[in-house]
Amino acid sequence: MNATRRTPALEVGRWMNGLPVTLDALRGRVVVIGAFDTVSPACEAGLAPQLQRVARTFHGSQVQVLGLHVPTPAGRDDADALAEFVARHGWRFPVATDAAPAPAPDQPDDADAPTRTMAAFGLSSTPSLILLDRRGVRRQQSAGAVCDLALGAAVMSLVMEPATPASTRGLAA
Asked: What is the pTM assigned to this prediction?
């Protein structure tokens, strides 16, 4: 996981498990965003149960988990596949589907272009994790698996920080 960066807005379409959410509306809470697709074994066996553990561990606390569904170019993870995936993992937290890539004038059918939120965060693969502090500042993000102990420690560190704008404790250099 790496250091602080500007936090872009979510550019998403459909929402599941609640009303649409903005990152601005979640200020005051630590936010854990898990980017996933429904066909990746790493998302199925790793990130999906990990997000459920974080949601269960920090339920009712100052932490909000969000799922960010990243559709595959082949469309093998449509709305029905997403609903089945969410139900299979017992997710009750909000889940949004990332917006399709903006068409590039020189490559209108670029199947490899990242979806909009993934591109805004500089991510290109799933699974990925993004951590925001209570001020809405992107503090850490990673592509690939993150061990539960490291993720729990990072989340708890952000929970323990004061929520004042002057707080910079815990920032990586």
From this structure: 0.87
